[in-house]
Prior knowledge:
26% strand; alpha/beta; six-stranded parallel sheet; 17 strands; globular; 27% helix; 12 helices; 358 residues
Amino acid sequence: MTKTMKAVKAYAPKDYRLEDVPVPKLLPGEVLMQVAACGICGSDIHCFHGAPSYWGNAAMPRWVKPPFTPGHEFSGVVADLDDQARAKWGIEKGDRIVVEQIIPCNDCLYCREGDYNLCSVHNMYGFHAGVGDGAWAEYCRLGVSSLIHKIPDSLSLEDAATVEPLSCSLHAFERGQVRLSDVVVVAGTGTIGGFIVQLARLANPRKLVVIDIMDKRLELAKQFGADLVINPKTEDAVAKVLSLTNGYGCDVYYDVTGHPSGVTQGLAMIRKKGRFVEFSVFSEPTTVDWSIIGEKKAIEIRGAHLGPYLYPAAIDLLSSGRVTTKGLRTGTFKLTDFQNALKKSEDTSVSIKNLLIP
């Protein structure tokens, strides 16, 4: 095996460099994965541009640990491991795998309660040097606390790189507790929203409505089974949903827009006692009249973070074809072209999910 590899290193906002670095050396119980594909997430773009939630500011500490290797949506092949890792994960050299983004400490309150996705330490692949260097690289070291899953031969390694966002989508979708009698609205059809639309169609609610400001994405939502699509730039989305529901509003609203207007829009169109699911990374604060949550509508606000316990289900949904990446995977780039891949990923008019291939 080669002793060096190419990897992207993030030193500071917009200071990301492709470097030749040593192939990671394993400690007992660890796994070396040869990276096959890694997605570029919206969070990667926010981080690249220096969002305070990652790099900190006067009001909050820095969360990332540079110089780290980005990349948390990845698939690959087992390149090296010891007997301890074999026994723990039931894997061998050459096995095809995916890995959960979170690296739980297994000791904090949340981990002990089973909510490992909310781990207080919260080390994650793609943001923390040493403990969690990610997969914008040729190889990735998987520590002993990693959560590793084998994937079937029927699932391509490129599609497998979307298991992470699909597991997040599954978790967010389940938080809405969709029923057959529900009118469901999904606002935003990026990768997460596109997967949620497909999951909602599988649940077969009474009406499935999708809102987006891009007609191209609305056409994709129709292919995924949306009953009604609305572009709020050309139509009054709130009025249309209220009209569809005899003035009551939708039962479930999923906000995956990442924009403050997605929140205020949802609060306006959701019915009393409705279920509002929030799954977004915002680049600016959202201001709302909170009395609508309690006094006016008594709605439930439900957050979702990562995809705990849902990787096996996500793998099955993709490998069986019940959920597809068709239309969501929009580009593939070589690792050496990562700067161009980032730039292309920022252009949401043409890109949804782009992959880096070492």
